[in-house]
Amino acid sequence: MDAALQRDEQHISLRSVPAQDRSEAAPKADASARTTALGALYAHALAVQYEAEVRYCEFATFMADYGNDAAADLFLRLTDFVAQRAFALAKRSMGIEIPVIDPAEYAWLDSGMPVAEARAFVYRLMTPRGALEIALHAQEQAKAYFERIQVESRNAGVRALASEFACEEQAHIDWISNALAHLPRPFWPDEELLGDPTIEQEV
Q1: pLDDT single digits (tens) 18-68
Q2: Dihedral of CA 142/146/148/153: which sign?
Q3: CATH number of 32-181: 1.10.275.10, 1.20.1260.10, 3.90.1580.10, 2.120.10.30?
Q4: What 8-state DSSP symbol labels residue 11?
């Protein structure tokens, strides 16, 4: 048999399936497509949580190293929060094939920064407010993604799950926004007023 013809037969579409067999083939195809879409949605949701957990843990470590215990405690609580969400998502997605996606798609910071000292320098200049603003931007992007899936998907189950994930991201956004609202105003050093840029101060 001609190789091209063989490939065509292997990739036969539902339209070419006899009518009496189409009723059986269609539900199987729909179920497969739905499972694939759910798996992709879970993959993105898990990637969001894993990145958040790693970054919050890093933020907590650096804030503690520079003596800002209050900020370190806040980021540790956020770490626990997203870790619990990630665990719950992983448990719910058991039995669903989860595709591999590029983690850089949800990276909060430049993932290409090769020198450890360079990243340490960035953290050294980062204030608690700056770290929370980075987190807020990332969570808003994640929410926007799930809202787009909710609008664009033709599968009711996928839309419902995307809506749930978007609501969860909104809850996280509210928590970060509340933390930002309770931080002192940013400290702006000048020649007459010096200070540690990693510690928020009233001016």
Answers
A1: 444 434 443 434 444 454 688 889 999 999 999 999 999 988 988 888 788
A2: positive
A3: 1.20.1260.10
A4: T
